[in-house]
Write a structure and sequence with these properties.
15% strand
């Protein structure tokens, strides 16, 4: 059975441009929800906006028998970050973004979290000649490098995304994120691979996993799905089932044993049932790989004739009898 967690902000009230979904909940009410969701025992909390004092959180974690999967630091919510925090032309704004990253590491250490993750969504552009790419890239390398070097025992994972809140994020794919990490020259940086971000960005998520693994870079995983047109945060397998199987296969092949964290937004659907759908499918695929599928898939990858390989996929994934 895999380790499953979720981003707790999705248990409460969420919004899009036109609607508000579900009721606002206190953190303890969200943890009460967590105990109703089968097979989930990890939480990823948003810092600094969702977290209480460290002692209070530790008491709540103990009360509801939950574990910290990660601290997710938000470097886009402040007024100063509206045009980017990490890549701002203003030194004082970049300094504030850096302090957010360091503060989140302090908090992670206090509450027993082993990692911090950050998705710099405000750092990007809309138009030609809007930014000096050389300067903004150096700002990112310097700030992420310095943040990673602070309390290096707690690694900082960078989550890439094609767009939102900017039309184009500076860190929009796995390869570019790895370039940044390599240039920062620290072992305390990793990549958060969000399945939906990878699909939406035109990547193959399984290939992204292998790319990060081959670079020797730690990874942390967010699970969800979408139709490739937007980051809808659907439940797993809703749109890209076979790609999700391949994604999990490459995680298992590379000995991933950390949390698979649901970055999934229930919006119109029942909250508990949405996350349980993630858990059921993910565990079923993982068990398949564990018991019979991994060795057979290894054989499929060695076949030159893909249509013959597809027969094997039909057999093992769908239970079809084929000649």
């Amino acid at each position: 059975m895999v380790k499953l967690s979720l981003i707790t902000s999705f248990l409460g009230q969420t919004k899009d441009r036109f609607h508000v979904y579900n009721e606002p909940l206190s953190l303890e009410e969200k943890f009460q929800y967590m105990n109703k969701i089968e097979n989930f025992d990890g939480v990823e909390l948003i810092h600094p906006y969702e977290v209480p004092k460290a002692d209070e959180l530790k008491a709540l974690l103990k009360k509801y028998n939950l574990k910290m999967a990660a601290v997710n630091v938000n470097v886009k919510g402040e007024k100063e970050f509206v045009s980017g925090g990490i890549t701002s032309a203003k030194p004082e704004v970049r300094a504030k973004a850096l302090q957010f990253l360091k503060n989140s590491k302090d908090y992670a250490a206090e509450v027993g979290a082993d990692k911090v993750t950050c998705c710099p969504l405000g750092d990007g552009f809309e138009f030609a000649f809007q930014y000096d790419y050389k300067k903004t890239w150096k700002y990112m390398v310097d700030i992420f490098g310095e943040a990673a070097s602070y309390k290096p025992e707690i690694p900082l994972f960078i989550e890439y995304k094609p767009s939102e809140t900017r039309a184009q994020c500076f860190l929009d794919n796995a390869a570019k994120t790895l370039v940044l990490i390599n240039q920062a020259k620290t072992k305390s940086l990793g990549v958060t691979i969000d399945f939906g971000h990878s699909i939406y960005g035109g990547e193959n998520p399984a290939e992204a996993v292998q790319l990060v693994a081959d670079n020797g870079t730690p990874m942390y995983i967010h699970i969800n799905d979408n139709n490739g047109k937007w980051d809808w945060d659907f439940f797993c397998g809703a749109k890209n089932f076979i790609e999700y199987v391949e994604f999990l296969y490459y995680l298992k092949r590379n000995n991933y044993n950390d949390y698979l964290t649901s970055d999934t937004s229930p919006t119109r659907w029942d909250i508990i049932k949405t996350f349980e759908a993630n858990g059921r499918l993910t565990n079923r695929i993982w068990d398949f790989l564990e018991n019979t599928g991994e060795a057979e898939i290894n054989k499929i990858l060695m076949m030159d004739d893909y249509l013959e390989a597809w027969k094997k996929i039909e057999k093992y994934l769908f239970g079809l009898k084929v000649n």
